[in-house]
Amino acid sequence: MMNDAINLIRELEDMGRNPKISILKTMKETGKKAVGCFPIYTPEELVYAAGMLPVGMWGGQTSGTLSDRYLQGFCCSIMKANTEQALLGQYDFLSAVIVTAYCDTLKCVIENWKIASPQLNVVPIVYPQNRKTPSGKMYMKDEFLRIKKELERIAGNVIAEQDLLESVDLYDEYRCIMQEFTDTVQDYPDLLKAKTRHLIIKAAYFMDKKIYNEKVSKLILELRKLPPENSRKRKRIILSGFISEPDGLLDIMTDNDMYVVADDLAHESRQFRTIAAKTGSPLDRMIERIALQDGCAFLFDEKKSRGRMLTAMKEKYRADGIIFCQLKFCDPEEFDYPIIKKDLEAAGVASLYIEIEQQMDSLEQLRTRIQSFGEVLA
Amino acid sequence: MITGAKEKGLYLGVDIGSSSSKAVVINQSGIICGEGIVNLGTGSKGPQISVEKALEQAGIKRADIKKCVVTGYGRLLYEGADKQITEISCHAKGVKFLWPTASTIIDIGGQDAKVIRVSPNGIVENFVMNEKCAAGTGRFLEVMARVLDCKIGALSGLAARGTPGVVISNTCTVFAESEVISQLASGKSLEDVALGAHKSIAQRIAGLCNRIGIADSVVMTGGVALNLNVVTAIETEIRHPIIRLADPQAMGALGAAIYAKEMDEENNTNR
Questions:
Q1: CATH 3.40.50.11890 in chain A, residues?
Q2: Residue A372 contacts B where some CB pair is shorter than 8 Å
Q3: What are A152-191's pLDDT values in tens digits?
Q4: Is the per-residue pLDDT at B134 higher than 80?
């Protein structure tokens, strides 16, 4: 039993740890073309329905100077890494790249990518500012239909309604499984340390969702056969922010007896915490999911609910504290933080703000902050 | 401080910073028996020398130490400690020991600046640190001293003779260095520029204080607290008096030594 769980964990960790190798492996196994999907939300269901493989493009450990031609020093490290890799030809195996326009950097980078890497078939998508209103939803539908047409051209086949329905169902299943997985993690702080949890969630970006769902479902089953691990001396942490990389910071949390019981990361739970009801057409369900998604810096929230959402999460998961992983130069997250901080302070929730860059290699200052936070929580 | 302690059961705290190493020996009553401060930080022989100095001053050998706690930037590399604790907790512990009513601690070391909020019972409630940039830290002062062609210890006196009005960037040490050169080239005096540089640090620290909020009493620790003019500049910026303890550099090591003593007492209780 234990060995089955460990083998699955190692397999998924490897997939999450080596993006390009994992994508090429999946492409070979499935015979599918791959389409790159920029953060934060892209209509992956359309890509899957077109018979292609949606793959996540969330930066990487690449740093260089080619991207300086298009991006200023104050652009985030994720966008720099993506652009650097594109200019190095590292994405040339992709049949297309869907680029969103959630922040100022993304808005400007779309045209640059079209010129700099025409071979990548850049497909821009703009989500409505008011995603909950009827006119906003109508606009979103038009955008999805435009993307659908583009993908049909790239795939060389028409997306049938039944294929789209199956794809939307598959993604709903993925979201259900992941909610179950992240809840299960709480009982296994040794087996599913912070980095392991992160890599397993990350693996979803580089695998066929059907295969991934099967693996994670099996992992949950195997885990449930094991008795819960003792977690009494450990601090229960919730992560918020864009991404928890470099993943060395997660090792620092483990070193300091912390484990992640839940997250509000754009790279992780925001991808699967919301599921729309199974009513209406597949496109309507996709639209509804985005409309229902709240507590995200990249989606307009007039109620500014994220701080209250995090406070409720703290109660639900009996967390000791929240670590806010601020990606340097990520404006939308930075705009949210003062409001969140005020709400958390008012609710008496212990929190730590750390500023990260995806490629930072010196983590000692972060170690002091995280260790100190652990000492504060002790 | 008592020296030449003959008693057994002493505790050692070592604080290994980026530019200096500090060691403090205390006895079972918490009285400081020995202290060593060396201007060599992590990766050097500084930690070893500071410990030797503290032991020598206490008149004891390493074997007389019952427990040792290490803190500071180089804490993870130090061998021979029973535990490592962050400098944030150790500064709070040391300051509260000497100044029980302290609620806010401003600690400016070689490459870090921190503001720490402490509860009445000595628990660290919250803290903020500077980001990676060296602005607002001891390193900034070192750069300024070099450009102004004076020793770091002479900066305070130099700035005290200055007239306010020179503005130096508070966001980047590298920019600040070129700004200082420009100010000197435009005919500004060394004294005025030194004062401007101190104000720049003070503004940076005031920003950290604003993020966390300050409460009475405010105590300043770390090597930069030795520069009286910087302390005064910070007082002006935060509009609050600052208590400067006699030995601000040693607070982290003192706190570490107190942690070592508490650890030993806890072990004895659990036996």
A1: 32-159
A2: yes
A3: 999 999 999 999 999 999 999 999 999 999 999 999 999 9
A4: no
The CATH number of B1-99+249-271, from 3.10.180.10, 1.20.1740.10, 3.30.420.40, 1.20.120.10, is 3.30.420.40
Predicted complex: ipTM over 0.90: no
Q: In terms of CATH architecture, what is B101-244?
A: 2-Layer Sandwich (3.30)
H/E stretch holding A150: helix A134-155
Q: What is the pLDDT of residue A92?
A: 95
Residue range A233-378 forms a domain whose CATH class is: alpha beta
The continuous run of DSSP H or E covering A237 comes out as strand A235-241
A7 touches chain B (CB under 8 A): no
Q: How many Cβ atoms sit within 10 Å of the Cβ of residue B31?
A: 11
| Domain boundaries, given as residue ranges, for chain B | 1-99+249-271, 101-244
Asked if residue B41 lies in contact with residue B22, where contact means CB atoms within 8 angstroms, the answer is no
Does the fold of domain B101-244 match that of domain B1-99+249-271? yes
Residue A240 and residue A325 in contact, taking contact as beta carbons nearer than 8 Å: yes
Pair A235, A377: CB distance under 8 Å: yes
pLDDT for position B171:
66
Q: Give yes or no for residue B135 having a pLDDT over 80.
A: no
**Candidates B73, B86, B132; nearest CB to A372:** B86
Q: What is the pLDDT of residues A127-140, one digit of tens each?
A: 999 999 999 999 99
Nearest to B127 among A364, A367, A372 (CB): A372
> What is the domain class of A32-159 according to CATH?
alpha beta
Q: From CA B114, how far away is CA B117, in angstroms rounded?
A: 10
The distance of A248 to chain B (nearest Cα, Å) reads 16
Q: What distances in angstroms separate CA A60 from CA A42, A67, A128, A184, one per listed residue?
A: 19, 14, 28, 28
pLDDT at B170: 62
Residues of chain A with CATH 3.40.50.11900: 233-378
Instruction: Give the one of A365, A369, A375 whose C-beta lies nearest to B89's C-beta.
Output: A375
Average pLDDT value for residue range A278-293: 97
Sign of the CA dihedral B87, B90, B92, B98?
negative
Burial A67-93 (b: 16+ CB within 10 A, else e): beebbeeebbbbbbbbbbbbbeebbee
Residue B2 clears pLDDT 90, i.e. is over it: no
Helices (H), chain B: 46-58, 87-98, 138-147, 155-160, 173-185, 190-212, 228-238, 251-270
Question: 3-state class of A50 per DSSP?
Answer: coil
Measuring CA to CA, which residue among A338, A343, A309, A310 is closest to residue A326?
A338
- Confidence (pLDDT) at B137: 85
Rounded to whole angstroms, the Cα distance separating A159 from A152 reads 6
Given a cut of 70, is residue B8 above it in pLDDT? Answer: no
Which residue in B has a C-alpha nearest to residue A326's C-alpha? B131
